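Reading a protein record of the kind used here takes only a little practice. Each token is a code from a learned vocabulary of local backbone shapes. With that in mind, consider the following protein and its fold in token form:
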Amino acid sequence: MPDERTDDPGYPARQASRMASLEQLDATVPTCRACPRLVEWREHTARVKRRAFQDWDYWARPVPGLGPPDAALAVVGLAPAAHGGNRTGRIFTGDPSGEVLYAALYDVGLASQPTATHRDDGLELYGVRITLPVHCAPPQNRPTPAERDTCRPWLARELELLRPTLRAVVVLGAFGWQALLPVLASAGWRLPRPRPAFGHGAQVLLADERGGRGLHLLGCYHPSQRNVFTGRLTPAMLRAALREGAALAGLPRPSSTDDR
């Protein structure tokens, strides 16, 4: 295979199609430099750092998905946080959104521990894989449409590799929902017309045009600091969405927890 220019906008599309496993995909995603603005920002953030993280050697690369290759449930977010995943190198790790998400995953029996601080902290996910439509930290947490589209082949290949076992997807936020729909359509899941709109609690069953079982799509507000602080999304609401997704995915029913 000839050497690939990782800063070529076509790099994700060419490389993603060659990935034979999720392990290979996860090892290749961090090599990507296809979006100049995102590369500049993630590396600038790693140089400047936050005062609290001056001793950290930032990851400062694209952050791959996390979870087993035979997951029945996927959780789709937005992009890594500049001082979270971009620092730690693991999705939703080391930032306030991750604190809320992993606590909820633990409460419903989908994670081995309620906290995620670094890549070697022992965290394991059970039956669920977490991923993103944009794998680099964007300025102001706002990827451009072009950056979203350039990154799309990584997500498309990830879902294709998960396809034999994937039964449900919980989407955290409107950006992830809109980014995911065309990926699902191109992968052979039939979208209803008009296309389903995002909303917390939104739920739709997508038929499999290849003759397999359908895919349950569920909407949930993103566990951002703003949403949690204002009460738009409470921990109980997040746990309920994850429980519903797990049930639709056919995962073992977790023991009950206090939904305060």
Observations:
- The chain has one domain: 11-248.
- Residues 70 and 224 are 28 Å apart (CA to CA).
- The longest helix spans residues 145-162.
